[in-house]
Every structure is written in structure tokens, then in C-alpha cells.
Design brief:
Elements (H helix, E strand, L loop, with lengths): L1 H16 L1 H19 L6 E3 L8 E6 L4 H9 L3 H7 L8 E4 L2 E5 L7 H20 L3
Antiparallel strand pairs: 1-2, 2-4, 3-4
């Protein structure tokens, strides 16, 4: 039962302290989704009509969601040279073809731009070799 109390405490904190900034998380999710959609990459897509909250679901045509999530966390030397910095993005595979990205209060402003840059970089790699 103590676990339920911890979840309830988190929920109460969010209701009392985070409701006003939830709109910012939704805008950040839209920014990430639009960045991905602008690539016009048929192997790595987002349905912009489905981005209504702080979550973005990325569909991978050829699967390999777990591998792409792992790649988001890696920072190879060539990528650091190309982007000018080391960027890691934490993401979860929902299934073999879907990645779930969740935006939250600790990610805003410049971090969102960096995350979008990293995600688009990896998406371009996938487009280049045709697989995840």
C-alpha cells in the first residue's frame, strides 16, 4: 500500500504545482513531432494529429524500435563532430515499430531543441541505410 501512497503523492504534487506548465510540455511535444515530420522520412514518421499531450509516438516502418532507443542514448564520435556536442535522448520502445517520447518539466527550451536535433540526426541515419 505504501506504493499507492507514493503514486498519489506524485499526482497531488502535479495537480497543485504543475498544471500551469503542462501546456509547455504539450508545446514541446509538438515541436519534437514537427521536427520529425519535417524530415519527410517514410521510415521514421509521426502522426501530427495524434500529438495532443506531452507524448510523441514515432512509427518505424521497418521496426527496430528498441535499437533506435538505444541509439538515441549513444553519442558516437562522428555524431559529436557533426552536431558539435554530445546529446543523449531517453526514449522507450512501445513495441517493435513504435517509440514513445515523453516530454516533462525537466526538459524545456534549449534541451528540447537539442533533443529534436539528436532525434532527427538518428532518423537521417535510418533513412540513409534503410533500417533501424
Amino acid at each position: 500500500m505504501s506504493q499507492i501512497g507514493m503514486m498519489a503523492a506524485a499526482g497531488l504534487y502535479a495537480l497543485y504545482n504543475m498544471v500551469e506548465r503542462l501546456a509547455e510540455d504539450h508545446q514541446n511535444a509538438q515541436y519534437i513531432a514537427k521536427s520529425i515530420a519535417s524530415l519527410h522520412n517514410p521510415a521514421f514518421t509521426v502522426d501530427l494529429n495524434q500529438v495532443e499531450t506531452n507524448m510523441v509516438f514515432v512509427l518505424l516502418k521497418n521496426g527496430g524500435a528498441a535499437n533506435v532507443c538505444k541509439r538515441f542514448a549513444e553519442t558516437p564520435d562522428q555524431e559529436i563532430k557533426d552536431l558539435g556536442r554530445s546529446i543523449s535522448v531517453l526514449a522507450a520502445s512501445r513495441n517493435h515499430k513504435t517509440i514513445r517520447l515523453v516530454l516533462h518539466c525537466d526538459a524545456s527550451g534549449e534541451l528540447i531543441k537539442k533533443a529534436a536535433q539528436k532525434i532527427c540526426y538518428v532518423a537521417s541515419e535510418i533513412m540513409g541505410n534503410g533500417k533501424a
